[in-house]
Every structure is written in structure tokens, then in C-alpha cells.
Design the sequence.
């Protein structure tokens, strides 16, 4: 694979990979700092994560803003993740995700906020689950992502551009991400400082998963995902990049 | 399919019996049972050693006694639970894979077919038991098939002992309690999956596959499986172990560690290590494998994978005019090397005297035997690899 193509592929998956913390692009890892001699018992929120052994319990941390937040992310990504998790208050997440939501730091520099996966609908069935993952990327501007993705026809068709709260936003999504089956996603990269050419990107991924106990090919109603998109990004921008 | 001609409703064809047994031997019910229990294993053991087995569950009384025996067994159900288990991990397994190897060693001792109860499945489905045989994935799996009559298969229940079922799996599945057993359920249109965790990462997983065809069953797959697992709950609380007598014949190959076999191939690689992928499969490979594009055409991955499986006669792969498969004898055991489009597979018959009849896949009886399956990159050195493995674990 050529370097050029490698770069394109990396960029195409950057939003997903970065906020999931599963990429080697970012240096360092958000390892817990407990004593290495005995396995750490996961906290209550980490027990509900996909990888409890790699998870860190969220600690409420006053967030830095703007360039200071990006600078912080290059120094200590775990603290940055705590800040991202702390940006929006509980009562706002209550409105967006419903009561019982919980926050944790998954592997890497990513804050994850999940709706209550034990919540049930009035007919007693498990409700669909919405997860919001938040990360920041300080080194490149949004223009870099756009140039790489739009330079390839097969990737460009998955890109849409719009603005939220006056900030340029790039959405990258394949048809499968929005087909209303099994698991749908919204992957957003925001030029948080207002200019696509200025380094510093806020990345937000919203995932809607089928209710617990249903198969991967079950139909889902993605309307909540679309309707909460602007609200989530606006709330984050209001606090982190006013 | 011609062997069962009557008898009790719960009788299945996969009954332990001597090769000279009559149909009456097959259908002879055990005393006072409603459990899907078939003929006594003890009676079969008393006969000629050279048996042509059909797999069976032994009597309910025996099961009760065995359950007691299981309780007294010192083996822990938790990973790393015991010095004995710790010693079972091959030295070639690196620290990051030791916990997995320990869990797989523990789960290899679960009697997968003993996790079934044909009578309970019959009750849940309303159909008749057809066959109970180890699954195609290896000796840690077991399939129970039901039917409404000859050539009219209906439900299939596949159980896997030691399936990966981690925090992410638990988060996606729905928690439920069936018969006092904490399980996780995932429901689909034509299948249902129920997992009973063994520890934080592994579970006994049973899948019910609904009959295909125009006749839609009266119950959904999860309705059937909930009923079935509820009936199985007492058995699953103390997972049955191999050699306990709950099923016969015993598959003695599972007493061995596949990593012990794979370890004999470590000297083929630079910076070699071993890794298990399920309770009956272990792979030897290099920490620095060659890139796929450097492989010769037709070669598989540069590694050696050893699995304990149940399969029909590998000699069927050998055909006149086709050089892709050849039969050899390795330390007195029948073996077949089969060159495929992506590497080489060697099958070594472990014990031809213990077999299970599977008659659902072929109008003629298919006799399955325990076999060592070895996957190598090419067939060039496959026979030497097989010889070293048999020399290590053969014990003849």
C-alpha cells in the first residue's frame, strides 16, 4: 500500500479510530496509574464498558477551553478525556440521553457517555442505547481531513459538510452507518476554533445500538441520533470552544 | 437412519451400543427416567472393547450421582483457579496469553455433549431427538438435532463450552434468569442464543436454530430455548465434566493439551510462541511473521495450528487421479495430508476403536472418530510436523 493510500485510509477512519482510542496515531495511552502488582477492580461505570480492564473511571475535572484544551491534550490525554467528560452537566445529558446515563474513559484519550443500557420502554422491553464519544485532535486542521477524503472519489461520497453554531463540521458516514439496521453512527469532525485551516479538531461520534438482546441485523429507529446531533455539538462547543 | 425402528419416544439413534447390538439394545430404556436418558453406559463398557458407539446420555440416577462427584472435584470454575491448572499451561504460551490458555484448559474439561438433555429438548420443541454429536468446530462443541421423522429435520441446538463472551458481549445481550441460572439472551428471527457465563470472559453458549422451510414452528427460537435451558439449569449449575460418565463414549483426546502438540513445531519459527484460540485449538507461530505477499502461491499462514476434532474417515479425501490428498501411516495411525488452496491440512485418526455414528449428513451411516487436525502453510513438511506431534502426544 502506497504512503498516499495509507494516509487516505487513515484519514477516512480517523474520526472513528481516534475517538475510540483504538489507533496508534496518538502517542501514549490512558493507562490507570494503580499499582501494577495486582489487577485493578473496575469501577461501577467501567464495569459497564466493553473493556473494563482498559477503562478509567471518570473524575469530574474543570475543563480548559480553546487552545488551552488542545495544548492540554498534547501533554496529558487522560486528564483531557476527564475534561471532555466534564464539559456538559448532568442535567443536559439527562435531557439528551435520558436519566441513568454514565461516563467513563475507554482506552485512549476518549470520553464515552452512554445512555442507561438497562433502561426499558413502557412495554417492558430494553430501550435502544445511545453512546456519545468525544475526543480532540490538536495537530492537524480539519482541512487536512477534508483534502484527503475528498481527494478519493470512493471516500468523498461519504463526506458531507455543514455548520453547527457557526463552526465548520465534516460528517463522514458510509451508507451502512445510516441504514437503520443494527447499529448506526454519526461521526463528526468540527473545526472547533472556527477555521478549517487552523489546527485543532473536536471529534464527536454518536452511536445508536439496538436494544440489548436483539440481533445485529435488527431494525432501529435512528431518528434520535439525527435529532440530538446539533444539540450535543452545540453544548460541547458552548463550554469548550466559546 | 434405518437403525431406529421403534421403542420409547425419547430414544435417539445416537446410543452407545456394541457393534453387534440389535435395535432392541438401542431402544432399551433405562429404568425410571424421564430425562432423555438412554441406554446404560456401564452395559456398553462391559462389552467388547471394540465398540462402534452412538453418543448417549446416561441415566438420570447416574447423573445425580455424578453431580455429586462434580461438586467434590477440586477443579475450579474460575480462571487461574488452582495450582493444577497453572501447571497445565505450556511454557511457550507468553504471559499475555496465559489467562486465556488457562481458561481454555479449564473449559476443555467440560463435557460439551453432557450439556444437552435430549428429553428436555423434545419437550421444548415437541419433536423427536435425532442425533447428538460433537460439533464441526471441535470437541468443545456439541450439536443436538431433532426431527419429526425420517428426512424431516427440525430444530438444531449447538452448544459451545468456553466461547468468548466478554464485557462487550454482556452489554449487548439481555440479562435474564432461567431456572435460577443467570444468563444472557440474544434474539433473532430464526435463531436464539443463550450464554451462561463461566467467568468474566468465557461462557457456555447455546444456539437454537429454527427449522427452515415452509412450516413455521409454533414457538419462536427464544421461546423454545428458554424452555430448554430452564430444564437444563440444574445441570448447568455444575457443568458436567468429561470422563464423569454423563455421556459415552468419552473423547479421550480432550485429556491432552493441544498446545503440548503445537509446541513440537515451535522450532520451525523465529521468536516462536503459542496461543490458544478455543479450548481444543492451539497455534505455534513467530512473533515476526512474514508478510502475506511474501507467501508462495497456495501457501497458508506461516504457522502450525493443532485442533482436536470429530470427523469422518479422512481417507475419503483421497481420490484416484487427484494428487491433492495422500494417505500415510504415522506411528501406526491413519493420517491424510490434504493440500488446499490456502495451505495444508493433516488429519490423524486418534482412536479408530471409539467412534460415533452420525447419520444426518448422509443416507449412509457416517462414522466419526476423534482426530488431530493440523494446519500448516504447505504440505512440504506436514508429515514431519505430524510425526513430531504424534511422537509427543501419541503415547501408544
Sequence:
Amino acid at each position: 500500500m502506497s504512503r498516499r493510500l495509507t494516509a487516505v485510509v487513515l484519514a477516512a477512519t480517523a474520526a472513528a479510530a481516534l475517538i475510540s482510542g483504538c489507533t496508534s496515531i496518538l502517542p501514549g495511552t490512558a493507562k490507570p496509574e494503580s499499582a501494577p502488582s495486582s489487577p485493578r477492580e473496575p469501577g461501577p461505570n467501567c464495569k459497564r464498558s466493553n473493556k473494563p480492564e482498559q477503562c478509567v473511571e471518570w473524575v469530574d475535572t474543570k475543563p480548559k477551553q480553546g487552545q488551552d484544551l488542545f495544548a492540554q491534550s498534547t501533554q496529558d490525554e487522560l486528564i483531557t478525556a476527564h475534561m471532555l467528560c466534564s464539559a456538559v452537566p448532568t442535567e443536559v445529558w439527562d435531557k439528551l440521553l435520558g436519566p441513568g446515563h454514565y461516563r467513563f474513559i475507554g482506552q485512549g484519550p476518549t470520553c464515552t457517555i452512554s445512555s442507561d443500557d438497562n433502561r426499558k420502554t413502557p412495554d417492558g422491553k430494553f430501550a435502544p442505547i445511545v453512546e456519545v464519544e468525544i475526543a480532540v485532535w490538536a495537530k492537524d486542521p480539519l482541512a487536512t481531513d477534508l483534502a484527503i477524503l475528498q481527494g478519493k472519489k470512493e471516500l468523498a461520497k461519504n463526506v458531507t459538510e455543514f455548520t453547527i453554531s457557526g463552526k465548520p463540521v465534516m460528517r463522514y458516514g458510509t451508507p451502512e452507518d445510516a441504514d437503520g439496521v443494527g447499529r448506526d453512527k454519526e461521526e463528526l469532525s468540527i473545526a472547533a476554533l472556527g477555521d478549517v485551516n487552523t489546527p485543532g479538531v473536536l471529534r464527536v461520534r454518536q452511536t445508536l445500538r439496538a436494544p440489548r438482546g436483539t440481533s445485529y441485523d435488527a431494525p432501529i429507529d435512528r431518528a434520535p441520533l439525527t435529532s440530538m446531533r446539533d444539540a450535543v455539538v452545540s453544548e460541547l462547543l458552548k463550554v469548550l470552544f466559546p | 437412519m434405518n437403525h431406529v425402528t421403534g421403542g420409547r419416544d425419547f430414544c435417539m439413534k445416537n446410543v452407545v451400543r456394541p457393534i453387534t447390538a440389535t435395535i432392541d439394545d438401542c431402544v432399551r430404556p433405562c429404568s425410571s427416567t424421564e430425562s432423555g436418558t438412554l441406554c446404560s453406559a456401564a452395559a456398553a463398557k462391559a462389552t467388547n472393547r471394540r465398540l462402534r458407539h452412538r453418543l448417549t446420555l446416561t441415566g438420570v440416577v447416574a447423573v445425580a450421582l455424578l453431580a455429586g462427584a462434580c461438586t467434590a472435584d477440586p477443579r475450579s470454575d474460575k480462571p487461574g483457579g488452582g495450582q493444577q491448572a497453572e501447571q497445565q499451561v505450556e511454557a511457550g504460551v507468553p504471559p499475555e496469553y496465559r489467562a486465556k490458555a488457562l481458561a481454555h484448559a479449564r473449559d476443555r474439561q467440560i463435557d460439551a455433549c453432557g450439556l444437552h438433555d435430549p428429553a428436555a429438548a423434545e419437550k421444548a420443541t415437541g419433536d423427536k431427538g435425532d442425533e447428538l454429536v460433537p460439533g464441526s468446530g471441535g470437541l468443545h462443541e456439541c450439536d443436538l438435532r431433532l426431527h419429526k421423522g425420517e428426512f424431516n429435520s427440525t430444530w438444531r441446538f449447538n452448544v459451545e463450552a468456553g466461547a468468548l463472551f466478554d464485557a462487550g458481549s454482556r452489554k449487548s445481550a439481555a440479562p435474564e434468569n432461567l431456572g435460577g441460572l443467570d444468563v444472557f439472551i440474544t434474539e433473532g428471527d430464526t435463531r436464539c442464543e443463550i450464554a451462561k457465563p463461566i467467568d468474566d470472559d468465557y461462557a457456555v453458549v447455546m444456539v437454537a436454530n429454527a427449522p427452515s422451510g415452509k412450516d413455521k414452528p409454533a414457538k419462536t427460537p427464544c421461546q423454545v430455548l428458554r424452555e430448554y435451558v430452564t430444564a437444563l439449569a440444574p445441570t448447568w449449575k455444575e457443568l458436567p465434566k468429561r470422563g464423569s460418565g454423563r455421556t459415552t463414549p468419552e473423547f479421550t483426546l480432550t485429556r491432552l493439551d493441544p498446545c503440548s502438540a503445537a509446541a513440537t513445531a515451535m522450532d520451525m519459527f523465529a521468536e516462536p510462541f503459542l496461543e490458544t484460540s478455543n479450548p481444543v485449538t492451539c497455534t505455534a507461530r513467530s512473533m515476526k511473521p512474514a508478510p502475506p505477499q511474501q507467501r508462495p502461491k497456495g501457501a497458508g499462514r506461516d504457522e502450525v495450528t493443532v485442533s482436536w476434532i470429530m470427523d469422518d474417515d479422512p481417507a475419503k479425501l483421497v481420490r484416484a487421479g487427484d494428487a491433492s490428498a495422500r494417505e500415510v501411516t504415522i506411528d501406526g495411525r491413519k493420517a491424510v495430508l490434504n493440500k488446499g488452496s490456502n495451505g495444508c491440512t493433516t488429519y490423524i485418526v486418534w482412536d479408530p476403536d471409539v467412534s460415533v455414528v452420525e447419520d444426518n449428513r448422509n443416507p449412509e451411516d457416517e462414522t466419526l472418530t476423534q482426530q488431530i487436525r493440523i494446519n500448516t502453510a504447505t504440505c512440504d513438511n506436514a508429515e514431519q510436523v505430524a510425526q513430531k506431534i504424534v511422537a509427543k502426544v501419541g503415547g501408544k
